[in-house]
Amino acid sequence: MDRRTLLKLVATAAAASLMPRTGIAQQVDPAARGPQARPPFSFEEVVRRARDLGSLPYERPASAVADVLAKLDFDAYRDIRFRPDKALLAQSGGPFRMQLFHPGFLFRQPVTINVIREGVPTPVPFSAQMFDYGRTKLDKPLPVNTGFAGFRLHYPLNNPKVLDEVISFLGASYFRFLGRNQHYGLSARGLAVNAGGEPEEFPVFREFWIENPEANAERATIYALLDSPSIAGAFQFHLYPAAQSVLDVTATLFPRTSIPKLGIAPLTSMFFSGENDRHLDTGYRPELHDSDGLLIHSGSGEWIWRPLRNPARPAIAAFVERNPRGFGLMQRDRHFSHYQDLDLHYQTRPSYWIEPRGDWGEGHVELVELPTGDETNDNIVAAWIPRQTPDRGQELTFGYRITALDRETEMHPGGKVLNTFVTVPKAHGSDEPVPAGARRYLVDFNGDDLPYYLGDPQLVQVDASISAGQVTRAFVLPNPAIGGFRASIDIEVPEGQTGDVRAFLRAGDKALTETWIYPWSSQ
């Protein structure tokens, strides 16, 4: 765990103190099993507990960790590490191992972690013997009910002989998982409530159940109980580690109140600087981002690419849909030379692609972009916002699949946006005046059938439009260096207005590429 991983959770650390004290989640006593014993623990049991929890008033607890743990600084907390030889889930000889996170520092409200063996859940008791405290010294022994901050699963992901971390749950309802040869970047969340608003609410996973995988198991199953002042919920996760790992998610939710903006399948990422939005304080590293664009496969079949930005002021964009086929925050730029960071591996950070199951109805994919002064803050959120406001007592169920991608070659058959550049609409070296509210966008497209059209570039046109203002000039040029084309689009927006520019390449009536969208404000 590095400094950035912890610092970016500061905003959600307070949410961890919102977990209620209610004792609804009772454990099944293994000694009680017999002819009249309860059926094996399953997701239905978590749903029942979430339903009961959501029917009760929310209860705000006090912080539960000892003062000595709450006062740990970053370095002291980082020095506490789980001992790999104490890993759980080894009894059945399966391929997964579980390690636990120690409570303390920002993580002051422990969560309960259970292991399910033969259908019976058993809580994992805290033991200091599980951890190597390094140079961190505690004044007195910690009690058995100290609990844990979260957990992670290990699996032979990259090498049959090496157990690599494949998924982690730590802080509020955040989780991250990896495919082969990937490094952690963006995060997923259980739910988002009023993301980008004031105040934002951070639901928390207050209890987990992990099934003990059998020998030769190809998946891990995790259940989680979520809670917040506005909503309770039950989550089921099926993890399938692979070159591009897959996480199947089912969430059953029970609102305590009417929630105007409930974010389903939320993703959180960082964008500080990129070729379309450069900042001079990146030092020797040209770009710094975990994701560089939002990709949407609309219900109508259109593919949309929206480059991410680090705006001067908070910005929210909504892409209205009905039953979206997919959306995700993507790390499309995979060139080390664009990052030049030997430690943080930005070029191998995964993209997370969401594919809904069932009927999600009407709503919109919402993109929240917040200004950030450095790379330690997660300033990007994308989520599905249902059009119908969830009401108190209503039961909601959503299913979706998240795939951790390291490439997009099979996402869709059309050409893709490779680069976006923003500049002033005038020739190099010219002293011609630039009208207020004017901008030029240079958009590189490559892939699919575009190399074919380099043989006759005149067949390719750019279809450009803007929601407010006007497109004053648009043309396309071949770009053999990328095996594609560069579109040049000049626009003007009236003072005080904001316009969304849209563009794609076509040959006659045939669309050749995805649709590029970018906002511009003349304020």
The end-to-end distance, rounded to whole angstroms, is 41 Å
Class by SSE composition = mainly beta
Q: Would you identify the regions where 5 or more consecutive residues have pLDDT less than 50?
A: 9-33
The residue fraction in helices comes out at: under 10%
Shape: elongated
Describe the model.
The protein is mainly β and 523 residues long. Helices cover 7% and strands 41% of the residues. The chain is built from six helices and 33 strands. It has helices at residues 3-7, 10-13, 43-54, 67-70, 74-78, 450-453, and strands spanning 81-82, 97-101, 112-117, 120-123, 131-132, 150-159, 162-170, 174-177, 187-189, 191-193, 204-211, 220-227, 231-240, 246-255, 262-269, 271-273, 288-289, 293-297, 303-307, 315-322, 326-330, 351-357, 362-369, 380-386, 396-405, 416-423, 438-446, 461-466, 470-479, 484-492, 498-507, 510-511, 515-521. The strands form five sheets. The chain has a 15-stranded mixed β-sheet that branches. Strands 2, 6, 7, 8, 9, 10, 15, 20, 23 and 24 form a ten-stranded antiparallel β-sheet that branches. The longest helix has 12 residues, at 43-54. The protein is elongated and about 75 Å long. The two termini are 41 Å apart. The relative contact order is 0.11.
Feature tags:
15-stranded mixed sheet, elongated, mainly beta, ten-stranded antiparallel sheet, 523 residues, 7% helix, single chain
